[in-house]
Design brief:
The chain is mostly helical. The chain starts with a helix and ends in an 11-residue tail after the last strand. It has helices at 2-21, 32-37, 39-51, 53-56, 60-72, and strands at 84-85, 95-96. Strands 1-2 form a two-stranded antiparallel ribbon. The chain is rod-shaped, with a radius of gyration of 27 Å. The protein has one domain (2-76). The protein contains 5 helices and 2 strands; from the N terminus they run H-H-H-H-H-E-E.
Length: 107
């Protein structure tokens, strides 16, 4: 009977170890500078971390990915070209955000 209990305990332990080994996780924890320099790796890691934030948000890999994404401005307007607005009545050129103010046209 003792041998049977030992076998069952080992079987349960083996099953638990096998199931925990099936969880997909990043192989290594990448640094923030690495993730900023490799946008595809960052995008993949952000997707993986946001798929299950309740369990993954405190992992070092997800913390680094969140910080790198924040610094890179993923999903923000930081990397867009300047906006050009149409010329206003009485002005001789279009206004570009961030450029010098246009001069009024001479009449």
């Amino acid at each position: 009977m003792t041998t049977c209990r030992w076998g069952v305990a080992m079987g349960v332990l083996g099953a638990v170890m096998a199931l925990t080994g099936c969880a997909r996780s990043p192989e290594t924890t990448r640094s923030v500078p690495y993730l900023r320099a490799h946008p595809k790796a960052l995008q993949t890691l952000v997707r993986w971390c946001t798929a299950d934030p309740g369990h993954l948000e405190r992992l070092p890999a997800c913390i680094n990915a969140r910080q790198a994404a924040l610094l890179n401005g993923i999903g923000s307007f930081q990397k867009l070209p300047p906006m050009a607005f149409p010329a206003l009545p009485g002005r001789d050129r279009a206004v570009v955000h961030g450029s010098a103010k246009p001069t009024a046209s001479k009449r």
